[in-house]
Write a structure and sequence with these properties.
This protein is mainly α. The protein has two domains: 3-182, MetI-like fold; 222-439, Orthogonal Bundle (MetI-like fold). 70% of the residues lie in helices and 2% in strands. It is built from 20 helices and two strands. It has helices at 8-22, 29-56, 61-70, 74-85, 87-102, 106-112, 134-143, 148-172, 183-206, 222-229, 232-262, 267-277, 283-296, 302-326, 330-338, 343-351, 356-371, 375-380, 389-397, 407-431; strands spanning 117-123, 126-129. It has a two-stranded antiparallel ribbon. Helix 11 runs antiparallel to helix 12 (267-277) and helix 12 runs antiparallel to helix 14 (302-326). It is globular and about 75 Å long.
């Protein structure tokens, strides 16, 4: 659970202190690229592990029992039986991780603002670094108020590449051979050690009176007093307000949309199509929405962030709701039709009150997603009084070109935010313990 509760806006700057202090990440393109790749992979491990573990648990336990009668080497069991049977899941995880890394903005930006400059990357329009992907390039052009046609061209290129990768990947699926080795155990131990070392760095920053990572400081608790005086409580209340409103709207809209599609032909296909469109989400889409919001005068409002987060949550939450409603007794729907109960009345009076397991699961997913949002508030909010926790933390250390990062205040604020996320996740999991999410 700890891996799930470390958002990139906390994790990347913490690892940045390590690579900045002990490597030449800002001047060596190779170091920049390797560092960004390692950190990006580090964040993908919890999702991938959970995804593959879920599929491996679906394997018939009788196979394992029969195997253990002949041998106690479970590595061989997973290598010869489990892995070949979840090949599709492994391949799906690979494609999902590839697309997520391809569209990633937070890691390359928060780590080194696009990486060390390449020899051919220094131009009159900006600097292309070793980790300047298309999303970072779009954001740089957006910040420099470049011609919107340039941003549009790069955004279109991003969409075309994602589409090509998605459709070409299906042809490669049957050609890929899956294998595991004892090296995987070593990687597991390395990841566990990295988690421990991560918290060592975070605690060192949080309880040090030195603002610099190069000067050794002494133990202090004053950092927490400083962040309280600096408006961290206001940022927390902003984040909580956005998360709660987003969750309520996401739950009601997704459940109602799923119920509507349940009553029409090809409803599941429509939902699958909307979830397919999620692979195109990213900063390149948010920038276009920024220009739409500017015309509607929604910029610098919580409404702009909430609408974006609801739109992001809606496809997946609707899919979960759709499959949950399909498991309801068919007689219930039939009796409603025989009694001529209006569809809206049936939804709000019967279906919704009997869907607490689903509601609690949707609330868990939506709240955590909204609480950890970084890109929408970064692009849409300008006033410091409206900052969310993610942007407040970002303001302490910024990107790589920030001249006077306040690492001690960032550490204290990050530690407090992590504790809030841990408590929030624990409480939501307790609420949803009897919920539908355990069957996903």
């Amino acid at each position: 659970m700890i891996g799930w509760t470390i958002p990139p806006y906390i994790g990347v700057p913490v690892w940045r202190t390590f690579f900045e202090k002990y490597t030449d990440i800002y001047i060596n393109p190779i170091t920049s690229f390797i560092s960004a790749t390692l950190i990006s992979s580090w964040f993908l491990i919890p999702f991938t592990s959970f995804f593959l573990y879920t599929f491996s648990e679906t394997q018939n336990k009788k196979y394992l029992e029969s195997f253990l009668l002949e041998s106690n080497k479970t590595d061989i069991y997973y290598k010869k039986i489990v892995v070949p049977n979840i090949k599709g899941a492994i391949y799906s995880a690979f494609i999902l991780n590839f697309l997520k890394a391809f569209k990633d903005f937070q890691v390359p930006w928060l780590l080194a603002e696009g990486g060390a400059p390449l020899s051919f990357g220094i131009t009159d329009k900006g600097i292309i670094g070793a980790t300047t992907n298309l999303e970072v390039l779009i954001y740089k052009l957006f910040n420099f108020e470049s011609d919107i046609s340039q941003v549009s061209s790069i955004s279109l290129l991003t969409i075309l590449i994602i589409t090509s990768v998605y459709f070409l990947s299906s042809k490669l699926n049957s050609k890929i051979k899956m294998n595991i080795s004892y090296f995987s155990k070593t990687l597991s131990y390395i990841w566990i050690f990295s988690i421990i070392y991560f918290f060592y760095i975070l605690l060192t920053l949080a309880f040090s009176n030195s603002q610099s990572i190069y000067l050794k400081g002494s133990f202090t608790l004053k950092n927490f007093k400083y962040i309280l005086d600096d408006g961290i409580v206001k940022s927390f209340s902003n984040t909580l307000l956005i998360s709660i409103i987003t969750s309520i709207l996401s739950i009601i809209l997704s459940m109602y949309f799923a119920y509507f599609l349940l009553n029409i032909k090809n409803g599941e296909n429509i939902l699958n199509f909307f979830n397919f469109l999620k692979i195109f989400s990213g900063l390149h889409i948010i920038i276009f929405i920024f220009y739409i919001y500017s015309k509607l005068r929604l910029l610098n409002t919580f409404t702009s962030v909430i609408l974006m987060l609801v739109a992001k949550n809606l496809p997946f939450l609707s899919l979960l709701s759709y499959h949950y409603f399909k498991n309801f007794p068919e007689d219930l729907f039939l009796l409603a039709k025989l009694d001529n109960i209006p569809k809206n009345t049936f939804f709000f009076k019967i279906l919704l009150p009997n869907s607490f397991p689903l509601v609690s699961s949707l609330f868990l997913l939506s709240t955590l997603n909204s609480f950890n949002a970084f890109l929408p508030p970064l692009v849409f909010l300008f006033d410091e009084s409206k900052y969310t926790l993610s942007i407040k933390l970002y303001s302490y250390v910024g990107a790589a070109n920030t001249h006077y990062p306040l690492w001690n205040l960032f550490g204290a604020a990050s530690f407090a935010t992590f504790l809030i996320l841990l408590i929030l996740t624990f409480l939501l999991l307790k609420i949803s313990k009897i919920s539908y999410i355990k069957y996903l």
